[in-house]
Amino acid sequence: MQANAVPESVDARVRRRLRQLRVEQGLTLQQVSDRAHIDVSMLSRLESGKRRLALDHIAGLAAALGVSTDELLGGAPASDPRVRGEPVTRDGLTMWPMTNRASGGLRTFKIRISAKRRRPPPLASLRVHDGHDWMYVLDGRMRLLLGEQDLVIEPGEAVEFSNATPHWFGAIDGPVELIAVFGPHGERTHLHG
Fold first, then answer.
1. For the purposes of burial, counting CB atoms within 10 Å of the CB of 56, is it exposed (0-12), middle (13-18) or buried (19 or more)?
2. pLDDT higher than threshold 60 for residue 119
3. What CA–CA distances, in Å, run from 70 to 54, 63, 82?
4. Domain chopping of the chain, boundaries
5. How confident is the model at residue 103 (pLDDT cuts 50, 70, 90)?
6. At the topology level of CATH, where does 88-192 sit?
7. What is the CATH number of domain 10-73?
């Protein structure tokens, strides 16, 4: 659509789709009117825009044309549900997005912690930011420093904590794979530093 183009009204779009589907299927006005239980002259006026389409016409016309009401209404095609995002690697973490970016919402990532990420920074330099983190360890043993706590998180265990608590996570004896859910602040901190 051009920048200055007037968007097509629903009524105009349905009229256009009605005629397009009828012609594509090689149907006459009479055949569609018989199937939809609508007078042929009314159907002709609907297609030409001389009569406004009523909501109670839509289901019958869609059935007469063998399409769903969504197809007749000509709504936008369904978006591709696949999540497409390049992994980000930094500080011994590789993060693959598992959800599409939603403004202000939660995002889910699969994370691989390198076996080399074993030494935490000094306690005084542990990260703090707004929000919460939620993590579920799939494989490997994860070390989680959470304030004064030094925890070992095993496969099958989940943790949830406030990011107001200084924290760091790394590997113990090999690489770790986990699923993490971050809010906007956690995503920004872990992905972009």
1. exposed
2. yes
3. 15, 11, 22
4. 10-73, 88-192
5. very low
6. Jelly Rolls (2.60.120)
7. 1.10.260.40
Query: How large is the average pLDDT for residues 46-61?
Result: 84
Reported pTM: 0.59
Mean local confidence (pLDDT), 59-79: 79
Looking at the chain, the whole-number percentage of residues with pLDDT higher than 90 is 39
Q: Which two tokens stand for residue 27?
A: 């149907």
DSSP string, 139-165: ES-EEEEETTEEEEE-TT-EEEEETTS
How far apart (Å, rounded) are the C-alpha atoms in residues 139 and 153?
10
Question: How far apart are the two ends of the chain, measured CA to CA in Å?
Answer: 39
Query: Residues 159, 153: contact at Cβ < 8 Å?
Result: yes
Count Cβ atoms below 10 Å from residue 22 Cβ, excluding itself.
Answer: 19
Contact predicate 66/26, CB 8 Å: no
SS3 21: helix
